[in-house]
What we know:
Layout: H1 9-15, E1 22-25, E2 29-33, E3 41-47, H2 62-70, H3 72-79, E4 86-89, E5 105-109
The structure holds adenosine monophosphate (AMP).
Adenosine monophosphate binds at residues 9, 18, 20, 32, 34-36, 44, 91, 97-100.
Amino acid sequence: MTHQDPDCIFCRIVEGSIPADIIYRNNHVLAFRDIAPAAPHHALIIPLRHIVSLSDLTAEDEEVAGHILLAAAPVADILGIRQSGYRMVFNSGADAIQSVMHIHGHVIGGRSMGWPPFPGEAVVHGQ
Ligand code: AMP
Protein backbone atom coordinates (compact mmCIF):
# COMPACT_ATOMS: atom_id res chain seq x y z
CA MET A 1 0.00 0.00 0.00
CA THR A 2 1.42 3.37 -0.97
CA HIS A 3 1.01 6.66 0.91
CA GLN A 4 1.10 4.97 4.30
CA ASP A 5 2.85 6.22 7.45
CA PRO A 6 4.48 3.31 9.33
CA ASP A 7 4.13 5.25 12.60
CA CYS A 8 0.39 5.84 12.16
CA ILE A 9 -1.88 3.53 14.16
CA PHE A 10 -4.72 3.85 11.62
CA CYS A 11 -2.38 3.03 8.70
CA ARG A 12 -1.44 -0.09 10.65
CA ILE A 13 -5.12 -1.01 11.00
CA VAL A 14 -5.47 -0.56 7.21
CA GLU A 15 -2.52 -2.88 6.55
CA GLY A 16 -3.79 -5.39 9.14
CA SER A 17 -0.84 -5.31 11.54
CA ILE A 18 -3.04 -3.94 14.36
CA PRO A 19 -6.43 -5.59 14.95
CA ALA A 20 -9.66 -3.64 14.80
CA ASP A 21 -13.37 -4.45 14.72
CA ILE A 22 -13.76 -3.68 11.01
CA ILE A 23 -17.38 -3.29 9.91
CA TYR A 24 -17.08 -1.83 6.40
CA ARG A 25 -14.46 -1.60 3.67
CA ASN A 26 -14.27 -0.61 0.03
CA ASN A 27 -11.46 0.43 -2.31
CA HIS A 28 -11.18 3.87 -0.69
CA VAL A 29 -12.17 3.71 2.97
CA LEU A 30 -12.32 1.46 6.01
CA ALA A 31 -14.68 1.69 9.00
CA PHE A 32 -14.15 0.09 12.39
CA ARG A 33 -15.66 0.41 15.86
CA ASP A 34 -14.02 2.97 18.12
CA ILE A 35 -12.03 1.32 20.91
CA ALA A 36 -13.40 3.83 23.47
CA PRO A 37 -16.97 4.52 22.33
CA ALA A 38 -18.38 7.95 23.17
CA ALA A 39 -21.93 6.80 22.40
CA PRO A 40 -23.82 3.47 22.32
CA HIS A 41 -22.68 3.13 18.70
CA HIS A 42 -19.42 4.68 17.56
CA ALA A 43 -17.40 3.88 14.44
CA LEU A 44 -14.60 5.65 12.61
CA ILE A 45 -14.43 6.02 8.82
CA ILE A 46 -10.91 6.51 7.52
CA PRO A 47 -9.33 6.70 4.06
CA LEU A 48 -6.99 3.80 3.24
CA ARG A 49 -4.40 6.41 2.27
CA HIS A 50 -2.70 8.45 4.98
CA ILE A 51 -4.07 11.99 5.16
CA VAL A 52 -3.49 13.86 8.44
CA SER A 53 -6.61 15.96 8.91
CA LEU A 54 -9.35 18.01 7.28
CA SER A 55 -6.85 20.87 7.08
CA ASP A 56 -4.50 18.73 4.99
CA LEU A 57 -7.02 17.78 2.30
CA THR A 58 -6.08 19.03 -1.17
CA ALA A 59 -7.87 19.01 -4.50
CA GLU A 60 -6.11 15.69 -5.16
CA ASP A 61 -8.14 14.20 -2.29
CA GLU A 62 -11.53 15.21 -3.67
CA GLU A 63 -12.53 11.67 -4.60
CA VAL A 64 -11.47 10.05 -1.34
CA ALA A 65 -13.06 12.85 0.71
CA GLY A 66 -16.33 12.11 -1.07
CA HIS A 67 -15.95 8.41 -0.31
CA ILE A 68 -15.55 9.14 3.41
CA LEU A 69 -18.91 10.94 3.39
CA LEU A 70 -20.55 8.36 1.14
CA ALA A 71 -19.63 5.64 3.64
CA ALA A 72 -21.58 7.33 6.45
CA ALA A 73 -25.02 5.96 5.53
CA PRO A 74 -23.93 2.34 4.95
CA VAL A 75 -21.91 2.43 8.19
CA ALA A 76 -24.91 3.88 10.06
CA ASP A 77 -26.99 1.07 8.55
CA ILE A 78 -24.55 -1.56 9.82
CA LEU A 79 -24.61 0.07 13.29
CA GLY A 80 -28.42 0.06 13.19
CA ILE A 81 -28.74 3.83 13.62
CA ARG A 82 -29.52 5.01 10.11
CA GLN A 83 -33.21 5.48 10.89
CA SER A 84 -32.86 6.82 14.45
CA GLY A 85 -30.21 9.36 13.45
CA TYR A 86 -26.52 9.85 13.94
CA ARG A 87 -23.80 12.47 13.88
CA MET A 88 -20.57 12.51 11.84
CA VAL A 89 -17.76 14.46 13.44
CA PHE A 90 -14.28 15.31 12.20
CA ASN A 91 -11.97 16.61 14.91
CA SER A 92 -9.21 18.66 13.32
CA GLY A 93 -6.31 20.07 15.29
CA ALA A 94 -5.64 20.86 18.93
CA ASP A 95 -8.78 22.77 19.92
CA ALA A 96 -10.92 19.95 18.58
CA ILE A 97 -8.73 17.44 20.48
CA GLN A 98 -7.72 15.44 17.42
CA SER A 99 -5.61 12.64 18.89
CA VAL A 100 -4.94 10.40 15.88
CA MET A 101 -3.28 12.17 12.97
CA HIS A 102 -5.00 10.20 10.20
CA ILE A 103 -8.24 11.85 9.13
CA HIS A 104 -11.32 10.05 10.44
CA GLY A 105 -15.01 10.73 10.60
CA HIS A 106 -16.62 9.63 13.86
CA VAL A 107 -20.09 8.16 13.28
CA ILE A 108 -21.91 8.26 16.62
CA GLY A 109 -25.47 7.48 17.58
CA GLY A 110 -27.81 5.24 19.50
CA ARG A 111 -28.93 8.00 21.88
CA SER A 112 -30.24 11.54 21.68
CA MET A 113 -27.55 14.22 21.53
CA GLY A 114 -27.22 17.83 22.55
CA TRP A 115 -26.32 20.82 20.44
CA PRO A 116 -24.10 22.83 20.58
CA PRO A 117 -21.48 20.33 21.73
CA PHE A 118 -19.39 22.61 23.96
CA PRO A 119 -19.21 21.45 27.58
CA GLY A 120 -16.73 23.22 29.85
CA GLU A 121 -15.17 26.64 29.77
CA ALA A 122 -14.32 28.19 26.43
CA VAL A 123 -10.90 29.35 25.30
CA VAL A 124 -11.69 31.50 22.29
CA HIS A 125 -9.42 31.34 19.22
CA GLY A 126 -9.73 32.60 15.66
CA GLN A 127 -11.30 35.75 14.25
P1 AMP B 1 -9.83 11.96 17.65
O1 AMP B 1 -9.75 12.42 19.07
O2 AMP B 1 -10.89 12.65 16.85
O3 AMP B 1 -8.47 11.96 16.98
O4 AMP B 1 -10.33 10.46 17.72
C1 AMP B 1 -9.49 9.35 17.72
C2 AMP B 1 -10.36 8.17 18.07
O5 AMP B 1 -9.65 7.00 17.76
C3 AMP B 1 -10.74 8.10 19.56
O6 AMP B 1 -12.15 8.10 19.69
C4 AMP B 1 -10.11 6.78 20.01
O7 AMP B 1 -10.89 6.11 20.96
C5 AMP B 1 -10.00 6.01 18.70
N1 AMP B 1 -8.96 5.00 18.64
C6 AMP B 1 -7.65 5.17 18.93
N2 AMP B 1 -6.99 4.02 18.72
C7 AMP B 1 -7.91 3.12 18.27
C8 AMP B 1 -7.84 1.76 17.87
N3 AMP B 1 -6.67 1.06 17.89
N4 AMP B 1 -8.98 1.15 17.48
C9 AMP B 1 -10.14 1.82 17.44
N5 AMP B 1 -10.26 3.11 17.81
C10 AMP B 1 -9.16 3.76 18.21
